[in-house]
UniProtKB/TrEMBL annotation:
Pfam families: GmrSD_C (PF07510). It comes from Streptomyces cellulosae. This is HNH endonuclease family protein. Keywords: Endonuclease, Hydrolase, Nuclease. One of its GO terms (molecular function) is endonuclease activity.
């Protein structure tokens, strides 16, 4: 049975492609569907498994020192070829059966888990406590508040912080399929964000793309590092240097 909305969620992708739904929807009751107070976004340093919402800035000197120590753990190597990459190598999107990550097999797909985790004022498809049809999102990448409706699906997209094709070029081509499925559906690696910002990012690493909102860039670097460390995945030397720079190292 599907867990209640209070058990925050996971995943990440373009909201387009959602199945057709009736025009009638219902408000979420309690839990993550209730408007949350200001500051609900969690610092990545306080959210190592990615189950809490958002991406709060890394602010003080102590946090920046923690951020630097984490980034220093990331290994580096050259970016390999993209030969053989296919999204299907990471399982179908957004599967609920990627074992080994939070919220797997909870009866709701990864995309909707992530929307519930980060969204406020959620509304669900009639008869469902999983499929989100509208929400309010505080987008960490641009600082905008987005009033999303299914009719404007592409306005919010689920971003893989470490892009899947990037991971392929940094060694995931040699991982087991199970490990690739974990990366693709791990809430640690997923953020619902402004669609145009996500499209601009594409499969870039930090040296080529950073969030437009400068205040969130250290937090973004930390999250990128958290994913890299968890999956024992190197980044390019340029990406690591950029990550360090964002945190004042």
């Amino acid at each position: 049975m599907r867990r209640g909305g209070g058990a925050a969620a996971v995943a990440v992708v373009l909201l387009a492609g959602c199945e057709s739904i009736p025009d009638v929807d219902v408000p979420a009751s309690g839990g993550s569907g209730a408007p949350a107070p200001d500051g609900r976004a969690a610092s990545p340093l306080d959210n190592p498994d990615g189950t809490r919402p958002g991406l709060a800035p890394v602010r003080d000197a102590q946090e920046r020192a923690e951020a630097a120590a984490l980034i220093d753990k990331v290994a580096t190597k050259g970016r390999g070829p993209k030969t053989g990459y296919d999204r299907d190598e990471y399982g179908y999107a957004w599967m609920d059966t990627a074992d080994g990550v939070p919220l797997a097999r909870n009866g709701c797909d990864t995309r909707n888990d992530i929307l519930q985790r980060d969204g406020q004022e959620l509304r669900f498809r009639s008869g469902s406590d999983c499929v989100v049809v509208s929400l309010t999102l505080a987008d960490p990448y641009t600082g905008k508040t987005i009033e999303w409706r299914k009719q404007q699906a592409s306005e919010v997209q689920i971003d893989h912080v470490v892009p899947l094709s990037y991971s392929w070029q940094m060694g995931a081509s040699r991982w087991s399929e199970a490990k690739r499925r974990q990366l693709a559906n791990d809430p640690l690696n997923l953020l619902p964000v402004d669609g145009s910002a996500n499209s601009a990012k594409s499969d870039s690493g930090p040296a080529s793309w950073l969030p437009p909102s400068k205040g969130i860039r250290c937090a973004y670097a930390v999250r990128f590092a958290q994913v890299a460390v968890k999956y024992e995945m190197p980044v390019t030397k340029a990406d690591k240097e950029t990550m360090r720079e964002q945190c004042g190292v």
